[in-house]
Amino acid sequence: NKLNEEMMLRCAxxxxxxxxxxDADVELQSNVVKFEIIKQKIASLSESDCQQLRIFVAAPxxxxxxxxxxxxxxxxxxxxxxILSNDELPKILTSDEVNYSNYSEKTVTELxxxxxxxxxxxxxxxxxxxxxxxxMLLNYYQNIYQMAxxxxxxxxxxxxxxxxxxxxxxxxxQMNKELESIKEIESTFGGLRxxxxxxxxxLEEMKVEYKQNKAEKRVMDQILxxxxxxxxxWKTEADDYQTLCNALNGDTIILTS
Length: 257
Known about the structure:
The protein is mainly alpha-helical. The protein is 82% helix and 0% strand. The protein starts with a helix and ends with a helix.
């Protein structure tokens, strides 16, 4: 019936959403090893590397300002935090606080303007002319952005699955209530339906009997009609015979006289 068809359609849609989530999760997981390797390189930065970075960011250039803004987004700190001058930068950047699974969609959107393929905010020539640690940091940040984006896609698809499941559960519950209601109605009116079927059968039998009686009546009417005609013929013949008898009697009386 229609309820079962609707439930089958909903299950098919849920399975499709599950497949979409699985595809997104496979893409995310396939990049985890690469990300961990890049993360380990950041964790292994030497004091000499960090010292070069501190010297480089001491100059308040627009490029340095942009680096600080990106670093603040990555570490979830205020823009003026000057996180790049922190002596424990490698530890901070690889701590549990910097986890690609924990970034909000708002933060990912802000990072996107720096790291999407069409962005021109980061000057590649300026990166190439900077100390190697700058390139390493930006590469790490870009990978965090990409992983955060993939992670959020998975979360969104997982939420859709949960919504579909909840909707299907509610529909299934409502469907069961309707089926129970139908059973109650059938139970309540089942006797009446059987009575109606009995009356219909009796009506059909009466129709057949009526047709038979009507046919028999036509035969009887024809017999009566034929009998009346025959009776009238007999009566006419009797009258004619009586008239003849009377006439003969009259002639006999005359002759006897």
